[in-house]
Amino acid sequence: MQRFVEAQNRRGELAEALGFRLGGGRGKILLQIRDGPVTLGQLARSNGVDAPYATLIVDKLAAHGLVERRPHPDDRRRKLVALTAAGHDAIATSDAILLRPPPAISNLPAADLEQLTELLARLLEADATEPEAPTSSAPAAPTPGSGGRRAGAPAGGGGAGRKPGR
Question: What integer pLDDT is reported at residue 54 of this predicted model?
Fold first, then answer.
């Protein structure tokens, strides 16, 4: 199964079509604003990053002409991040490439495709009803711009087992 999934990785094809990569959280943020403008604070919170890092990602998207900052209608101090026409085009290109079924699936006989569709529906249903298991017991990695602190960690250090003055 892993070999099949790896063979269908289309990130390179997408980067070639767009002329740049959407890594580093850029693709995720781009998709989060596809339904309408959001604030930088909302983007930071929903991605588990600090505001300066969310700003950095938005700056990179803006440099490619995919997003723009607009004044917030209720608060002049805040800005909304919105897609440009080029941003909508990039999402359409992404959808066309990433949502296209691989030939190994689209070339299946109708009966096999129906069976696969039913199996995938059952897997998705089972996944939706099971509680989400923790992915790791390890602490989160430091976020960029956090001075090496992990997301949510207080400033000033004082880690477990450390004595003051050491």
Answer: 94
What whole-number distance in Å separates Cα of residue 45 and Cα of residue 48?
Answer: 5
Q: Measured between alpha carbons, how far is 12 from 2 in angstroms, rounded to an integer?
A: 18
pLDDT at 142: 53
CATH architecture of the region 2-101 = Orthogonal Bundle (1.10)
Nearby residues of 78 by Cβ (< 8 Å), 6 or more positions away: 39, 40, 41, 72
Which residues of the chain have a pLDDT value below 70?
1-8, 132-166
Give first-to-last CA distance, the chain, whole Å: 50
Instruction: Say what the pLDDT of residue 133 is.
Output: 60
Per-residue pLDDT, 158:
45
For the chain, what are the domain ranges? 2-101
- Which helix (DSSP H) or strand (DSSP E) does residue 46 occupy? helix 40-47
